[in-house]
């Protein structure tokens, strides 16, 4: 993964908090060296917790506002000032046109011209994550995108680890040792999302996962990725 100040990193996430869970340390790392970082969210992340008749209730609406404000604080801690929030309903991406999702990603790509894209992996339990991966794969077709060199998928605690088969298999590891505390601080902004260990989305759970991925790669703490595509261009 090219870690230079010239890098333009685009993170395509399904919901607010996925950016921190999947790539918080990496985002902070790139921000710290002056790279351009943008995060786009394709949907909100709370309505799946409410009965169908209460998706648009005042309580659900307030929870959505809370999640957005939490994300803004988390992104600020990670050093991100360029972001966009989507409003697709949580765990219902399969009810939307895939073409519309692809076109939204393509629009953001053409405007931002990322050299690296980070997104969800195709093996997650969460259908929104799987569709996000599929949409990014379609949107990053190589024709006419000479600015894009690398595309990676990341894992999400719970969603990636609770799959019975076809698990996420990383082959790229990013050292986040100097940024693990930043990641945890960003995660703490998502009020009400943490549960006691051994729940994966606890502070100890996130530390354990980062430590485990570090052990796999000779590092103290790492975030794991799977390389989807890399293009090596002429100088």
Short description:
Helix content is 37%, strand content 16%. The chain has 235 residues and is of the alpha/beta class. Helix 1 packs parallel to helix 2 (58-78) and helix 3 crosses helix 4.
How would you describe this protein?
This protein has 235 residues and is an alpha/beta fold. The protein has a single domain (8-230), classed as Rossmann fold, CATH 3.40.50.10320. Helix content is 37%, strand content 16%. The chain has helices at 18-32, 58-78, 98-112, 127-139, 180-187, 203-217, and strands at 8-13, 36-41, 82-84, 116-120, 150-154, 172-175, 222-230. A 7-stranded mixed sheet has the order 3-2-1-4-5-7-6, with helices on both faces. Helix 2 links the parallel strand 2 (36-41) and strand 3. The model has no long low-confidence stretch (mean pLDDT 96).
Q: What are the salient characteristics of this protein?
A:
235 residues, alpha/beta, Rossmann fold, seven-stranded mixed beta sheet, 6 helices, 7 strands, 37% helix
Overall shape: it is globular
Radius of gyration: 17 Å
Number of H- or I-type helical stretches? 6
Largest sheet: 7 strands, mixed
Count of separate structural domains = 1
Structural class: alpha/beta
Low-confidence stretches: none
Arrangement of strands in the largest sheet: 3-2-1-4-5-7-6
| Number of β-strand runs | 7
Strand content: 15-25%
Share of helix, binned: 25-40%
Under the CATH scheme, the architecture is 3-Layer(aba) Sandwich
The residue-averaged pLDDT reads 96
CATH class, anyone? Alpha Beta
Q: What are the SSEs and their pairings?
A:
Elements: E1 8-13, H1 18-32, E2 36-41, H2 58-78, E3 82-84, H3 98-112, E4 116-120, H4 127-139, E5 150-154, E6 172-175, H5 180-187, H6 203-217, E7 222-230
Helix pairs in contact: 1-2, 1-5, 2-5, 3-4
